[in-house]
Amino acid sequence: MGYTDYNNLLNRIDEYLKASLKEKRYRHTLRVRDLAVEMAEQEGVDLQKAEIAALLHDMARNINEMALKMYVRNLGLDDRYASNINLAHGKIGREMARMEFGIEDEDILNAISYHTTGRAGMSKLEKIIFLADAIEPGRAYPEVDNIRAKAKASLDEGCLASLSKTITYVKSRNEYLDADTECAYSDIKEKLE
After folding, report:
1. Of 124, 135, 148, 100, whose CA–CA distance to 110 is shortest?
2. What confidence tens digit (pLDDT) does each residue in 129-178 have?
3. CB of 193 closer than 8 Å to CB of 168
4. What gap in Å lies between CA 22 and CA 17, rounded to an integer?
5. What residues contact 25, with CB distance under 8 A and at least 6 apart?
6. Taking the C-alpha atoms of 129, 135, 137 and 143 in order, what is their torsion angle to the nearest 10 degrees?
7. What does the H/E/C string look like for 44-86?
8. Euclidean distance between the first and final Cα of the chain, in Å?
């Protein structure tokens, strides 16, 4: 990829994250970055792209409710995002990465946008950010060790296990399940059969 002033970009991103994220979210972001870069190296994915996408994946996570509604309206997102920061922050973060840092690489932008839901046809970078967010060392939930083990074996196996867990969890709580999550699951399952 080769950003000409990569270190300057990283410094600007770090300043932004420190100013806009809560400390716990900032530490999570750094762990996601470390794991994403490690996974990218193993998978032959551009390390700079992995680092940028990982650092920016949650950049919109701590916006307030008023800003959330404004972004949803201005970006033309479906109304279901207006009250769901869990789903909306990736879509909003995609646009914030473009506006704040001039990120135009579609692979990075897609990795940010779909890091919580996944989607059919995910690139390796998208899968790395999706998984790194789900299994970074600070995560502790039932099945995380199983997902980590599957992710070590294969990106697709790890993504499928994580998507399956998400689908089961969301359905058990009678919450809204994003169609992209179901499509991602079906797409990867079909590839593995």
Report:
1. 124
2. 999 999 999 999 999 999 999 999 999 999 999 999 999 999 999 988 99
3. no
4. 9
5. 58, 61, 62
6. 180
7. CCCHHHHHHHHHHCCCCCCCCHHHHHHHHHHCCCCHHHHHCHH
8. 33
User: 15-55 pLDDT, tens per residue?
Assistant: 999 999 999 999 999 999 999 999 999 999 999 999 999 99
Give Rg (Cα) of the chain.
16
Residue 117: C-alpha distances to residues 30, 124, 127, 165, 166 (Å): 21, 15, 11, 12, 9
In 3D, which of 122, 130, 134, 135 has the Cα closest to residue 53?
130
**Distance of alpha carbon 116 from alpha carbon 113, whole angstroms:** 8
pTM for the model:
0.95
Rounded CA separation 50/124 (Å): 10
Residue listed under structure tokens 């990829």: 1
Structure tokens at 75: 């970006």
Retrieve residue 35's tokens: 């794991």
Count CB atoms within 10 A of the CB of residue 107: 18
Both structure tokens of 188: 């990867």
Span 79-119, pLDDT tens digits:
888 888 888 999 999 999 999 999 999 999 999 999 999 99
For the CA atoms of 77, 164, 59, 3, the dihedral, rounded to the nearest 10 degrees, stands at -100
What is d(CA 134, CA 116) in angstroms, rounded to the nearest whole number?
8
Euclidean distance between CA atoms 159 and 165, whole angstroms? 10
